[in-house]
Design a protein that fits this description.
The chain is α/β, with parallel strands linked by helices. Helix content is 41%, strand content 11%. An eight-stranded parallel beta sheet has the order 6-3-2-1-12-11-9-7. A two-stranded antiparallel ribbon has the order 4-5. It has a two-stranded parallel ribbon with strand order 8-10. α2 packs across α12, α6 packs across α7 and α11 packs across α12. 49% of the residues are buried.
Length: 382
């Protein structure tokens, strides 16, 4: 037999065997030590379409209890059209390999909104997807639910269990460079946004995939891109942008909510939403009643890293009320970012600046989310 063919066949066989084992029962713990709880509070990106036991991300999962990874198809820092995704078969093997190193069930996230913001693209062999704007124009919940189900099936087939979608930003500014211009919003009407988002989530849930509303408290009116730097919506934001969150939280439709790196003096005169206790704790938790996981947008985006020190940003995000800190590790790349973030959080706890009970509260919410995922996908005891 040709040696190269034999190697390919062996690799595929190993991947298939691993795929069969990917539903093995792993317990979601009620309690954990401080290191484990901190590791579960991080979502981190990495480079590579394949991993092994020596890969930095595998070491993070195995040794540092990293709770969530995020996949991308394009490496922004390298300006290179390959990151983690090249084909359905490759992604399934990658995800299966990552999951086997986790002692607590691993969340594998991706931005698969549909349309422009889709990491699993047709050119890699995945099904075509429809943008939120197109779904909103049809305004037919049955069509949107089918779109959500198709998205969920696409993710579930390769082992991805968390879609960072739908966007519930109200399209108040069609020229917004990161929302309206990219067809990421369902509608300028908040009630159409609600109807469409609920239908999309129903579709995702039917396939056992979690959702995430974004970007709280509303990014649809912005004039600039928070990836690049400070985005001030004080002159354009409207309370209308909170309506989808109010109603969907009340309806218990939310798995998780992502914060926006926007600055809004009407809500906090000093801090952007991701770092604001007034916005994440007082408004989102206390006034709107959200009890689930709050995750940040990418902490390496310009709106944060250009204005705040690494440790300062971490401290302020946790103080604000964020449960999970996202380091996409794509806009800039640091293979040690997980280790550094864990060290920073542990130092904050040991110095008394953040209480261990605050860490435990976030850990509990994350474990509840993972338990919900297992309830949608009952694991098989092997």
């Amino acid at each position: 037999m040709n040696k190269s063919f034999s190697l390919v066949a062996t690799t595929l066989l190993l991947c298939l065997c691993a795929a069969c084992a990917k539903t093995t029962l792993r317990k979601v713990p009620l309690n954990a030590d401080l290191d484990t709880m901190i590791g579960q509070m991080l979502m981190v990106g990495f480079r590579g379409t394949a991993v092994n036991a020596t890969s930095p991300i595998v070491q993070d999962i195995r040794d540092r209890h990293l709770g969530t990874v995020i996949l991308f198809d394009y490496d922004v820092a390298l300006h290179h059209p390959q990151r983690n995704i090249s084909s359905p078969e490759q992604v399934e093997c990658l995800v299966t390999e990552l999951k086997k190193y986790a002692d607590i069930p691993l969340l594998v996230a991706v931005d698969q909104e549909g349309g422009h913001v889709s990491r699993l693209k047709e050119k890699y062999g995945f099904p075509a997807s429809t943008s939120a704007a197109d779904l909103g124009r049809h305004n037919d919940p049955s069509i949107t639910e089918k779109a959500g189900a198709l998205t969920g099936k696409t993710l579930a087939r390769v082992g991805i269990n968390w879609d960072l979608a739908p966007v519930v930003d109200v399209n108040t500014n069609p020229d917004c460079p990161v929302i309206g211009k990219l067809d990421r919003s369902f509608s300028p009407d908040p009630y159409i946004v609600i109807t469409q988002a609920k239908a999309f989530i129903t579709g995702l849930h039917s396939t056992g995939v979690l959702s995430c509303l974004k970007h709280f408290p509303g990014h649809g009116s912005s004039m600039t891109d928070s990836h690049m730097g400070l985005t001030d919506v004080s002159g354009t934001w409207s309370p209308t942008e909170l309506i989808p969150y109010k109603q969907m939280i009340a309806a218990r439709t939310c798995d998780a909510i992502m914060s926006a790196h926007i600055f809004n003096t009407h809500l906090d005169p000093d801090l952007p939403a991701t770092l604001s206790p007034q916005i994440l704790t007082e408004l989102l938790r206390n006034q709107l009643g959200f009890t689930g996981v709050i995750l940040t947008d990418d902490m390496q985006m310009g709106a944060i890293h250009k204005h705040y020190d690494f440790k300062q940003a971490i401290a302020q995000a946790i103080t604000a009320g964020a449960d999970m800190l996202v380091f996409g590790n794509n806009l800039q790349y640091d293979p040690n970012v997980t280790r550094k973030a864990i060290a920073a959080i542990k130092e904050l706890v040991q110095s008394g600046k953040i209480s261990q009970s605050r860490i435990k509260a976030s850990f509990d919410r994350i474990m509840k989310l993972k338990t919900k995922l297992q309830a949608m996908n009952p694991p098989v005891q092997l």
